C-alpha cells in the first residue's frame, strides 16, 4: 500500500489520555490499555473507530464498562463502532516480546525488556491511533519479577512503586506532556544507574540518570558529561530549558538505529552511548557526544513540537541534525566538522539522489516509512535548515526558531509551519526556497568566468539544472546561496563591487534563476574566485577552473573549508583523468598539493589530515556516474595512494614519530587531530611493501597504547599492509584481549570487514564466528555493513559479493526487515556500473525478490531499484 502526503486528513477520533499497565511474564506480556477518546469535532456522524494493532492476542475489549462483542481484527487493524462522542476504549491483549526479533515495539535486548516505537512500533504493544498527530498524556504502570527486573522505567516522572505477590513489583510513571505514541518508552531490567544532576537556567534541579548493564557501568561518564553540556548549550543557543524533573538514558545492546528520543527516557544503542578511553576511539567519542546532544535536542525539536505526519519527518530530523552539528562545531572545530559533514553527504546522499530511491527532503509518498529515515531526510534536511540560516541571517534565524517553539508548543506541525516562522520574522519570501523540500535530486551548477582586462571587469555565469528523478520529471530553479570571495594570487580577499544579488555583510550571492550572470568591477587583474565557501549549498559544481587557480585555493584560501574542497578537486580531477586514460601515473600537481600541505606550519593537524586524504572510491563512482569500471577506479586510486606513500615516505615516517605522545588520553579537537594525522602518516608509511620499520612502528603503537585511537591506528596500519601473517597475529591478540567487551568485539569485526581486499570467504567465516549473532544489528552492521562499504572488496573482480549479500538480506529479512532493508543500498545503484557488473548486481536484486516472502521494507527498495 502506498501512503501519500496529499491524502492527509485528520483522524476521526482523538486520544486525550492513555493509561497503560504492562505485565511482563516469562513467555508473554499482558497489556491493559484505557484510551480516553473524543470524536474529532470536524467529523460528522459517528464513524467506526479503526485502531492500529499488530499481532495482538485479544483478551477483552470494552467501551467504558460495556464489553465489545462485535469487532473486526485483521491482524493489523481493529474496527469497532463507538456509540458516543466521548468514551474510554479499553483493551486487554497479550504480546510476545521474547519472540520479537524486529526490535520494534516491546522486545528483549539480552535480558532487558525495552521498546522502540518510532515510527510505527507502538501498534505492536497495544491497539492505538498510531500516528504522530494524535497526542495524549500517558500514565504507565509496569509489573515484573522483582529480582530479575529491579529497574522499571517509563516516560515522565515516577509517581508510585511497590511490591506485589509472588516476588513481583510495579512502578508507575506519569508523563504530563502530550505526546504521540512514537515517543512512548518502557524498560524493565537489571541495570546499574549513574546519577548526576543539572540545574537549569531558571534554577530547577533535574535528576539525570544513565542506565546500563552492570558490566558496562564503567562506560557512562562521558555520555553524562555530554548530556550536561548539551543541556547548557540548548539553553544558551536556543533558549530551550528542560521540562520534566528527570532525564534518563538507557543503553541497549540490541537496537536498530543510533538512539531514540522518547520523552524523558532516551533509549540508546550501546555503541552510541558507552565509551571510555580504552575502548572508544576519538571518532566514537565524537559520535556519542553528537548523538547524546541530538536526542536531547529532540526534546524541543521533535517532542514539544512534533510532526503532523511522517512526510514531515525532516521537520524534526533535519532541524535536529542541524542543531547537533552546531553543537559539535561549538565544542570542537567548526571547519573540521564541516569537512566531515560534507564528506558524508557527498559519499552517501549524493548517490542516493542519483539513484532509484531519490526522494525529496519531504517525501510525497512511501510504502514503508522506515525506509525514509535516510541521509536525504536527515542530512540534506539539515543542509536546508542551514541554508535558511544563511539566507535570513543569525539574528532572524533565532527569532524564527523562538517563534516556532512558542507558537507550536504541544502541537503536531509541518515543515511549512517552520518556514512560515522564518518568513514572518525576516520578512523574506521563501516560497521559491521551499522547492528544496519538494524537489528531489542534487542541483548541478555550471560556472563560467570571463575577465575583461580593458574594462577591469570580471564576470561569473552560473547555470543551474536538476536531473529528472523517479516520479519527478519537471524541475524548477532552486534558490542557491553562494557564499563567496574573490582572491588575488596571494590568496588575499579583494573587496567586491558587483551588480548581482550579493549581500556584502554575509558575502552571499543568491541565485534564483536558471541562468545568472554577475559582473564585478574595478578589478585590475583576473581574480581567483572562491565559491560555495563552507559548502553553502548542497549542489554539484561544474567549473573548469584553471589548475593554477585551484592550486591557489588549495594552498592559500583563507576559507579553510575551501582549501580542503580545492585539494579534493585536484585529487578528483587527477584520478578521473587516470581512470579515463587507464594510466597509473599520478599528475605532478597532486604531489605539489601534498608537499605544500606537509610544509604548511599554519595548519592544524586535523586540517592537514583532511587535506591529505584522497576522495573515496565511492566519490569517484559518484563523479563518473555511468559505465563505471570498478577495477579501474581501484587501480587508479591505489596507484595515487601508493605514489604519495612512496614519494613522501621520509615525511610520513617523521610525522608518525613526531606526533607520538605519552600524555594521558584526552578527547578534544587538538588531541584528536594529532592522533588522526599520526594514524594517517603511519598508514601511508606502512603501505610501502616489505617496510618492516613501518610495521614495527605500527605494532609498537598498538602494543603500548593506553587508548583505543592509538591502538586502532597501529592495528589498522598493519591490517591494511601486505603482511597477512603479522596482521592475523595482531587481530588474534586483539580478540583474545577483549573478547568480553561487546564494543571491542564489534570493532574487531569492523576492522576486518573494512580491511583492504577482504574476501567473501573471510566475511562468511566472520559470520560463523562464536561472537557473531545475526539477531544483533551491531554485529551485523560491523560485519556486513563494513563489507558493503568496503568498495574494493564488495566490487571485487570475481563479482561474487553481490549474490552473497543478497542471500544475507533474505536471511535477515525474516528476522528484522528494517535492518535487512538497509543493506539493499549496496546493490541499488547497479545502473551506474559497467554492463557486466551491473548485470550481476541486478541479478542479485532479482534473487532477493524471487526467494521467498519479502517484507514491505525490502520489497519497496528492491522494486524501486529494478524499476
Ligand atoms: N528518531 C531517531 C533519531 O534520529 C531515530 C529513530 C529511527 N527509527 C526508525 N524506526 N527508523 O534520533
Ligand atoms: Zn533524530
From TrEMBL:
Q: What is its EC number?
A: 3.4.11.2
Give cofactor(s), names only.
Zn(2+)
Return the broad EC class: hydrolase
Every copy of the Peptidase M1 alanyl aminopeptidase Ig-like fold domain together lies at 441-543
Q: What family classification does the UniProt entry report for this protein?
A: Belongs to the peptidase M1 family.
The function of this protein is: Aminopeptidase N is involved in the degradation of intracellular peptides generated by protein breakdown during normal growth as well as in response to nutrient starvation.
Answer yes or no on keyword Transmembrane helix.
Answer: no
Single GO term (MF):
metallopeptidase activity
Q: What is the lineage of its organism?
A: Bacteria, Pseudomonadati, Pseudomonadota, Gammaproteobacteria, Oceanospirillales
- Any one GO BP annotation for this protein: proteolysis
Q: Which reaction does it catalyse?
A: Release of an N-terminal amino acid, Xaa-|-Yaa- from a peptide, amide or arylamide. Xaa is preferably Ala, but may be most amino acids including Pro (slow action). When a terminal hydrophobic residue is followed by a prolyl residue, the two may be released as an intact Xaa-Pro dipeptide
Which residue ranges does the record assign to the Aminopeptidase N-like N-terminal domain? 89-183
List the protein's name. Answer: Aminopeptidase N
Keyword Protease carried by entry = yes
Which stretches make up the Peptidase M1 alanyl aminopeptidase C-terminal domain?
549-867
Known InterPro entries for this protein? Aminopeptidase_N-like_N, Aminopeptidase_N-like_N_sf, PepN_Ig-like_sf, Peptidase_M1, Peptidase_M1_dom, Peptidase_M1_pepN, Peptidase_M1_pepN_C, Peptidase_M1_pepN_C_sf
Arranged from A to Z, the UniProt key words for this protein are:
Aminopeptidase, Hydrolase, Metal-binding, Metalloprotease, Protease, Zinc
**Which positions fall inside the Peptidase M1 membrane alanine aminopeptidase domain?**
222-436
Amino acid at each position: 500500500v502506498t501512503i501519500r502526503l496529499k491524502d492527509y486528513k485528520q483522524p476521526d477520533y482523538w486520544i486525550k489520555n492513555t493509561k497503560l499497565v504492562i505485565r511482563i511474564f516469562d513467555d508473554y506480556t499482558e497489556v491493559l490499555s484505557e484510551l480516553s477518546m473524543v470524536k474529532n469535532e470536524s467529523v460528522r456522524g459517528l464513524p467506526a473507530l479503526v485502531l492500529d494493532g499488530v499481532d495482538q492476542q485479544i483478551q477483552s475489549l470494552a467501551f467504558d464498562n460495556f464489553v465489545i462483542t462485535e469487532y473486526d481484527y485483521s491482524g493489523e487493524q481493529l474496527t469497532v463502532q463507538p456509540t458516543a462522542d466521548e468514551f474510554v476504549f479499553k483493551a486487554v491483549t497479550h504480546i510476545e516480546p521474547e519472540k520479537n526479533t524486529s526490535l520494534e515495539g516491546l522486545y528483549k535486548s539480552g535480558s532487558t525488556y525495552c521498546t522502540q516505537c518510532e515510527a510505527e512500533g507502538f501498534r505492536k504493544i497495544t491497539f492505538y491511533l498510531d500516528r504522530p498527530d494524535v497526542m495524549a498524556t500517558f500514565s504507565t504502570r509496569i509489573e515484573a519479577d522483582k529480582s530479575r527486573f529491579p529497574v522499571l522505567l517509563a516516560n515522565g516522572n515516577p509517581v508510585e512503586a511497590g511490591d506485589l505477590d509472588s516476588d513481583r513489583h510495579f512502578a508507575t510513571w506519569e508523563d504530563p506532556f502530550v505526546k504521540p505514541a512514537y515517543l512512548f518508552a518502557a524498560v524493565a531490567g537489571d541495570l546499574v544507574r549513574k546519577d548526576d544532576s543539572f540545574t537549569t537556567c531558571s534554577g530547577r534541579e533535574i535528576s539525570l540518570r544513565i542506565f546500563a548493564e552492570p558490566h558496562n557501568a564503567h562506560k557512562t561518564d562521558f555520555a553524562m558529561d555530554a548530556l550536561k553540556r548539551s543541556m547548557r548549550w540548548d539553553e544558551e543557543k536556543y533558549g530551550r530549558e528542560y521540562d520534566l524533573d528527570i532525564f534518563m538514558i538507557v543503553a541497549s545492546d540490541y537496537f536498530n538505529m543510533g538512539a531514540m528520543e522518547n520523552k524523558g527516557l532516551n533509549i540508546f544503542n550501546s555503541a552510541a552511548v558507552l565509551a571510555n578511553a580504552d575502548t572508544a576511539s576519538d571518532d566514537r567519542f565524537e559520535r556519542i557526544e553528537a548523538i547524546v546532544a541530538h536526542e536531547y535536542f529532540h526534546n524541543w525539536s521533535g517532542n514539544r513540537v512534533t510532526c503532523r505526519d511522517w512526510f514531515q519527518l525532516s521537520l524534526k530530523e533535519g532541524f535536529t541534525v542541524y542543531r547537533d552539528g552546531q553543537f559539535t562545531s561549538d565544542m570542537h572545530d567548526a571547519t573540521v566538522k564541516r569537512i566531515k559533514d560534507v564528506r558524508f553527504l557527498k559519499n552517501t546522499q549524493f548517490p542516493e539522489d542519483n539513484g532509484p530511491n531519490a526522494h525529496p527532503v519531504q517525501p510525497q509518498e512511501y510504502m514503508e516509512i522506515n525506509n525514509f529515515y535516510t541521509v536525504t531526510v536527515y542530512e540534506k534536511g539539515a543542509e536546508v535548515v542551514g541554508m535558511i540560516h544563511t539566507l535570513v541571517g543569525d539574528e532572524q534565524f533565532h527569532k524564527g526558531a523562538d517563534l516556532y517553539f512558542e507558537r507550536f508548543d504541544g502541537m503536531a506541525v509541518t515543515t511549512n509551519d517552520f518556514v512560515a516562522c522564518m518568513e514572518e520574522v525576516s520578512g523574506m519570501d521563501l516560497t521559491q526556497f521551499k522547492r528544496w523540500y519538494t524537489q528531489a535530486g542534487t542541483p548541478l551548477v555550471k560556472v563560467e568566468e570571463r575577465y575583461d582586462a580593458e574594462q577591469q571587469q570580471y564576470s561569473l555565469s552560473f547555470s543551474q539544472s536538476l536531473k529528472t528523478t523517479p516520479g519527478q520529471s519537471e524541475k524548477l530553479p532552486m534558490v542557491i546561496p553562494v557564499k563567496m570571495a574573490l582572491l588575488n594570487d596571494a590568496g588575499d580577499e579583494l573587496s567586491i563591487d558587483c551588480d548581482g544579488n550579493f549581500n556584502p555583510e554575509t558575502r552571499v550571492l543568491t541565485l534564483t534563476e536558471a541562468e545568472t550572470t554577475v559582473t564585478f568591477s574595478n578589478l585590475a587583474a583576473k581574480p581567483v574566485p572562491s565559491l560555495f565557501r563552507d559548502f553553502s549549498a548542497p549542489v554539484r559544481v561544474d567549473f573548469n577552473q584553471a589548475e593554477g587557480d585551484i592550486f591557489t585555493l588549495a594552498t592559500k584560501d583563507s576559507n579553510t573549508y575551501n582549501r580542503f574542497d580545492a585539494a579534493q578537486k585536484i585529487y578528483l580531477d587527477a584520478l578521473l583523468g587516470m581512470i579515463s586514460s587507464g594510466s597509473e601515473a599520478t599528475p605532478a600537481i597532486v604531489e605539489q598539493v601534498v608537499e605544500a600541505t606537509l610544509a604548511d606550519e599554519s595548519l592544524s593537524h586535523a586540517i592537514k589530515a583532511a587535506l591529505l586524504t584522497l576522495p573515496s572510491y565511492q566519490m569517484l563512482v559518484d563523479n563518473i556516474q555511468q559505465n563505471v569500471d570498478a577495477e579501474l577506479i581501484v587501480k587508479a586510486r591505489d596507484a595515487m595512494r601508493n605514489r604519495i606513500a612512496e614519494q613522501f615516505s621520509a615525511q610520513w615516517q617523521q610525522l608518525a614519530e613526531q606526533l607520538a605522545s605519552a600524555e594521558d588520553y584526552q578527547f578534544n579537537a587538538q588531541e584528536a587531530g594529532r592522533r588522526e594525522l599520526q594514524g594517517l602518516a603511519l598508514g601511508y608509511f606502512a603501505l610501502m611493501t616489505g617496510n618492516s620499520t613501518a610495521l614495527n612502528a605500527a605494532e609498537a603503537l598498538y602494543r603500548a597504547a593506553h587508548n583505543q585511537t592509538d591502538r586502532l591506528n597501529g592495528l589498522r596500519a598493519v591490517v591494511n599492509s601486505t603482511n597477512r601473517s603479522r596482521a592475523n597475529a595482531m587481530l588474534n591478540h586483539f580478540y583474545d584481549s577483549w573478547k568480553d567487551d561487546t564494543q571491542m568485539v564489534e570493532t574487531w569485526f569492523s576492522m576486518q570487514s573494512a580491511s583492504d581486499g577482504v574476501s567473501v570467504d573471510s566475511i562468511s567465516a566472520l559470520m560463523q564466528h562464536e561472537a557473531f549473532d545475526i539477531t544483533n544489528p551491531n554485529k551485523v552492521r560491523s560485519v556486513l555493513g563494513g563489507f558493503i562499504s568496503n568498495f574494493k572488496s564488495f566490487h571485487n573482480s570475481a563479482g561474487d559479493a553481490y549474490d552473497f549479500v543478497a542471500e544475507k538480506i533474505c536471511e535477515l529479512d525474516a528476522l528484522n526487515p528494517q535492518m535487512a532493508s538497509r543493506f539493499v543500498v549496496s546493490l541499488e545503484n547497479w545502473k551506474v556500473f559497467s554492463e557486466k557488473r551491473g548485470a550481476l548486481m541486478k541479478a542479485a536484486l532479482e534473487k532477493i525478490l524471487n526467494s521467498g516472502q519479502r517484507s514491505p521494507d525490502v520489497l519497496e527498495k528492491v522494486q524501486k531499484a529494478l524499476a
